[in-house]
Amino acid sequence: MRAMVCTRYGPPEVLELQELDKPVPKTGEILIKVHASTVTAGDCEMRSFKFPVLLWIPLRLYLGVRKPRMKVLGQEFAGEVESAGSEQTLFVEGDRVFGSTELKLGAYADYLCLPADYALTRMADGVSFEEAAAIPTGGMNALFFLRKARIRAGQKVLIIGAGGSIGTLAVQLARNSGAEVTAVDSGEKLDMLLTIGADKVIDYRKEDFTVTGETYDVIFDVAGKSPFSKTVNAIKPKGVYLMGNPNISQMFRRLIHTKKGSRKIIAGAASYNAEDLRYLDGLLADGKIRPVIDRIFPLEELSDAHRYVESGVKKGNVIISNQ
User: Fold this and answer.
1) Domain 2-134+291-321 belongs to what topology?
2) Which end of the chain is flanked by fewer CB atoms within 10 Å, N or C?
């Protein structure tokens, strides 16, 4: 089978197209013919090994000290079940499925083996492989954080870094809850954000939301780049600050009690599961959410796709097609 192999840590050029043996499902696993996957910021971080200092040692030990232990990257996918190992009753041959590989990785290949009880589920009729592949990472992370905020109709929600895979789905999920959504990102993404439901948009290069005097019930910082103190001051008393990708300084500062009301400051990591994927699949099938797809690259052009994602200009998702 074809696979894009990460030969060493480094720039996009370390990704090479190679022929590997087709995997064979073990007990409790299914063999999936991959039709689509994605390139996320996390994929680029694993390829280049650019992580915060506190994560460097544990991730180096897990991912590989001198070179990647899991040579085929890729965290989310959509495809068809081709065969199954013994003692597996959740899926049958021909099922159209999508999900997350979690830290097993391996989606940048023609075939992938995963335990059947991983975060994967069947796709609804009418959903394309490209659409489904764009849902797991962005959707489950957006769900995890927005559920923590318990958003109610009429609340004001600000989403920082709204133009990426997590942010575009967070905008739609917040609007589905009846919130008034303000989306913050670069100017070239603002029209797209309005088309998916944002009520207001802010170009962070031209306007600082922390000095407008506007306050919000919920602020979700997807990228973890907003100034901590100023952001907290833009939250209403008893409001919620969701820290999607906090840096070390923010993690320490969130432990400091704020003197202005009882604001909640929440950080954490999403737990990936099939139940959440089924929920998101239902929303997708009903037209209540739709993934934003910027570009589609063939598998053999994965290096170009990684380079494009690292440029910071992508809107929503970048898809890798095995068709």
Assistant:
1) Quinone Oxidoreductase; Chain A, domain 1 (3.90.180)
2) C
